[in-house]
Amino acid sequence: MGKITFIEHDGTEHVVEFEAGASLKDIAVDNAVPGIDADCGGECACGTCHVILAQEWYGKTGAPGQDEEQMLSLTPERAETSRLGCQVQTTEAMDGMSVRLPEFQM
Ligand code: FES
How far is the centre of ligand 1, averaged over its atoms, from the C-alpha of 27 (Å)? Predict the structure, then answer.
């Protein structure tokens, strides 16, 4: 059990508890964090679970896969540390992580 802070585009913070093994998308959706649409339900097919990680946390999430990279390339607000929330499986090492949400999901 740990805590992750989701930060909306306007700065509103949502601190939620998580169990390692859940995806960032599932954690956000299960806790009713606004700003994650997840239209495809976590199949890496919609890009509407876009999250932006701080550089120090990005390295702990592994590298995006080829399908994820393709979806991210279509994301207007993509940053260097962007990931799709459904493709990031949390670990104990992510306790304390901050996750920014883009202004729009598309
Ligand atoms: Fe659709 Fe992540 S939920 S790509």
Answer: 13
